[in-house]
Amino acid sequence: MSAYLDGRPGRGAYAFALAIVAVPLALALFGPLFAGAPDPRATSFTLGGGHWLGTDFVGRDVWRQILLGGRPVVLTALAATALAYLVALPIGLTAALTHRGRLEELLIRPLDILLAVPSLLLILLVATVFTPGAAGLAPLVALANIPDAARLVRAAAAEAASRPAVEAMRLQGETWWRMGVGYVGRSILRTLAADAGIRLTGVLYLVATAAFLGVGVAPDAADWAVMVDRNRTGLFVQPWAVVVPALLIVALTTGSNLLFDAALDDGGRAERKNGRAERKNGRTERKKGKWT
Amino acid sequence: MRPLRSWLARRLLLGAAQTVAVVLLVFALTEALPGDAAVALAGDEPDPARVAAIRETMELDRPATARLLDWAAGLAHGDLGTSLVSRRPVSAYVADGFGPTLLLASLTVLLLVPAGVGLGVLAARHRGRLADRAISTVTLGVYAVPEFALGVLLVTVFALRLGWLPPTAVGYGTDLLGHPAALVLPVLVLLSRPVCSLARMVRAGMIEALASPYAAQARRYGIPGARIRYAHALPNAVAPAAQHLARTVDWLLCGVIVVEALFVIPGLGTVLMNAVAERDVPVVQGLAVVFGVITVVLNIGADLVTRGFAPRGEVTA
Amino acid sequence: MDVNAVAEIKDLRVEIDGRAVVDNVSLSVAPGRITALVGPSGSGKTTTGLALLGEYPPGARVTGDVRVAEGLVGYVPQHPAAVLNPARRIGALLHDIARRQVRHPRRSERRAEARERVLAALAQAQLPDAEALLHRYPHQLSGGQQQRVVLAQALLLGARVVVADEPTTGQDALTKRRVVERLSAVAERGIAVVLLSHDLDVVRALADEVVVMRAGRVVESAPAERMWTAPAHPWTRTLLAARPTTPPSTPPGDVPRDKRQAGEATPGPGTPGLRVRGLAARHGATTVLRTAGLTVRSGTCLAVVGRSGSGKTTLARCLAGLHRDHDGEVLLDDSPLPRSLRSRTREQLAAVQYVFQDARAAFDEHRPVLDQVARTASRLRGAAPATARAEAEATLNGLGLAPDLVRRLPGQLSGGELQRAALARALLARPRVLVCDEVTSGLDPITRRDILDRLIALPRDHTDLALILITHDLDAAALATRIAVLEAGELIEQGPAHQVLTTPSHPFTADLTRAWSALT
């Protein structure tokens, strides 16, 4: 896998990614502090007239909407990622560490099936029935991510749990806690960290796309994705109300993906330096019993 | 090597189980509606006549198991149910939207493979140099961008500023092939994410294969570079990428919904979004089943392709 | 210099980060002769061998001359599968080389001629049924066939020199014998063979010239007969002595007895120890091992030998409770042990201990070795943490591991050191049965000798201990009290060690011992 990430200087990649992600992230985190009180509504889709970026489809100040509209995207994505792991971790770890085949099947099979449903479709389906509010979008996006996350946790943990180190601990009569958390948990930490980065970008994508399609948001919400959707009708008159939030979403997703990749690259490099990478050949036939 | 037939049988069985599960899941979700489903679906100010109509169409008075069996039996015969809003059969909706969506999807897949593999091979050949760094950074960056954001920016530049292409497909109806200019931006947007991921997979696979002991042995024995690249390394690089294509199916379906909404193309995605907006449950259910089955079938196809490329039979059912 | 030489290395020096991994190495190989480079890992023999191929480690600074006739060198790696492209059929792999040799104006003629050359090369490499083979993928071939295909590639290339890198490491005596035959057949064709190996048996059987290397330098270089009879350098003598040839009957007086064991009332030698009754182990639905009955008495050592895939590791894992998918019983002092580790009591866990083949993988890389070893005493014998650490340190020191070494993380210890630490971890449980699964494979001869000597001394010093050595190495098995032979999942023969080795009753054992004595 190392070949996946080589060829780019680490420092430069970090700086580049940070430069891209800094603006949308700062706006999302601190924007609401500077938004101030709402102005009285002006005419829809105007330029100038005391409004730096003009007005939107209902005559609100676009700049103020921008200041307010990043936070829901970022917070929902973070909450959804955390929630997905909150469910996926216990499922994946239990499935990997149990020696009862039935329990493993019971935990993993339903997820296999859920995987067959495209994530956006799943979200739309649930949305039709329940009309989730702003708080409902995070659990929905999390739900779409649980199958994949749980499978990843299980695969990583099962690999760690099948190593001779764990069998040696069993022969020593070690406690479950030391084996399951102290060793297996610690061994999968790096995989999880790498996955969390990738998953967060995927979640950002889903959150923004769902909001653009009107799922889990009010039709006039201060949200960058909603702004792109609602102000599209005025694209020819007042492009800023669409272009600025769209650019911010692009910068946020691109930047965070570049940033996580640079971090992953660094981690991989550190690991190679410690010489751990050479060790992979030792684990041989051991897995069979559990896997087939 | 595991015998192909038994592998195929197990893979098809899994596909069938997934199909059944999708049907059950779709049905269960509507059952989970709180309170009286008919009242819940009728909107904010339930009109008694509408509630009654919904109750009648969905046969809510009958027990759930009977309705499920009827619905499933109908699905098996191609009867997807009846719309709550228009009283038209759901299959008619599917028939309407199928053409444009199929056109978009097939154009995308047709361009996806050469573009993705080409970019990946190009980057791997110039590994570490400018071309590689440019391709790697751009594919990594664009890969995460939601289609709608990229789409409106492209529309702003190419339709609004430069005026080269129409901003939407409004007015062309389902006859998109007659207006190829209207297809350029939608297909471009639809391609953006899968191309990036495919290119990255191929690049990584090529670099790994070129660094492998078997490539070293081939070089040692004087086999020309081009032959090592395309005959020795590429098949090994494409195998994991082909498997990855299965996941691309998911993205494509998501992408189709967004792109149709963005460019106002009357395909299945638009039908679905309209039904979601009107809470027309039978239409949503029917489309969900159609999308689900397509995903299952395409996944099986992708697994078959992967198996063809990876004779070691690493793909498990 | 030498007019006959097909390849020559003069004053080769390879530096990585300012450190010389190979220094002042000169070498010349003649056609049809086999030159062996021997030495422990890190001695620079692989770097020297790869220099003949014009390949060096990345970032290396190279000085000196390497000259090869016509520049054609074949390469046979330790794992032949690694150099065979998994996605290409054997036919395609060989045609790629053959088509470069053929210069015929017409395309169809070129094809036909290339095909003829491929078939000829396969025949020369002793691969019958070539037609069928051409359509197979590398993974559908046995290890031996893969190695022969790699040799066929070298023959097809017209190589004047073939470099074979550890071609027998980790193989059983029969397979080794075949590798030896294959390589001498190559030499008989007038090709110079450069053999990189730390397997002295194979070197003895094959080499015409021996070059002994240590720490990147040539220690001694001589014709084979002279090297075996009159080694000039003390290091060479150490290396050659590192073959376990001591019979197990040496009086145990020279090894200090373990004080802890001395006072305890323990069952003496001859008590039943461990017994296996009607064992049938499965992987999934297939039964991979059948053992009707097998007994290891306390104070003795049983060697379980067999080729890879014969089921010997599965047997070991069944005994230790690591493989629970089996029928039949494993009895310790006539009481059955639960099949799974999870159902064994502390005493039962302590009684049967297991040492893994890959010592590095058997340690948690995040915790110091001493901490991990000490857990045996605290978990299985309820020792207080401080006592457990003291005991662990004493046992580790007794096995020759210095106090500062055992406080490091496993990553900072060598393979041999970790294997001794793993042994200490198992011994700390004061086991009644110790199962060692190929614990010396992958170690250099001197370390292997050291660990084997320590293992063989165990049942002599602890008369309540039964030692089970799982091995493919008949040299090691010769040290045991009894030998059991497994082939294709069946226990085909068992008996006293010398009897099995000298007068085997089963034809397979006879093959195995014949190959072994031919190599010794």
Write structural notes for this entry.
The complex is a heterotrimer of chains A (292), B (317) and C (520). Chain A has 292 residues and is mainly alpha-helical. Chain A has 10 helices and no strands. In chain A, α5 packs antiparallel against α7 (176-212). The longest helix of chain A is centred in the middle third of the chain and has 37 residues, at 176-212. Chain A is elongated and about 80 Å long. The two termini of chain A are 26 Å apart. With 317 residues, chain B is mainly α. Chain B has a domain at 98-308: Orthogonal Bundle (MetI-like fold). In chain B, 75% of the residues lie in helices and 0% in strands. The longest helix of chain B is centred in the C-terminal third of the chain and has 39 residues, at 225-263. Mean pLDDT of chain B is 79; it is low at 313-317. Chain C has 520 residues and is an alpha/beta fold. Chain C folds into 2 domains: 7-240, Rossmann fold, CATH 3.40.50; 270-364 and 432-519, Rossmann fold (3-Layer(aba) Sandwich). Chain C contains 20 helices and 19 strands. In chain C, the strands form 4 sheets. Chain C has a 6-stranded mixed beta sheet with strand order 5-6-7-3-8-9, sandwiched between helices. A 6-stranded mixed beta sheet of chain C has the order 15-16-17-12-18-19, with helices on both faces. In chain C, α5 packs parallel to α6 (173-188), α6 packs across α20 and α13 (369-381) runs parallel beside α16 (415-427). Classes of the chains: A mainly alpha (292), B mainly alpha (317), C alpha/beta (520). Chains A and B meet through α3, α4, α7, α8 and α9 of A and α1, α6, α7, α8 and α10 of B. Chain C: Residues 245-254 have a biased composition (Pro residues). Chain C: Residues 236-275 are annotated as: Disordered. Chain C: Residues 7-240, 274-513 form the ABC transporter domain. Chain C: Pfam families: ABC_tran, oligo_HPY. Chain C: Keywords: ATP-binding, Cell inner membrane, Cell membrane, Membrane, Nucleotide-binding, Translocase, Transport. Chain A: InterPro entries: BP-dependent_transpt_permease, MetI-like, MetI-like_sf.
Short description:
The complex is a heterotrimer of chains A (292), B (317) and C (520). Chain A has 292 residues and is mainly alpha-helical. Chain A has 10 helices and no strands.
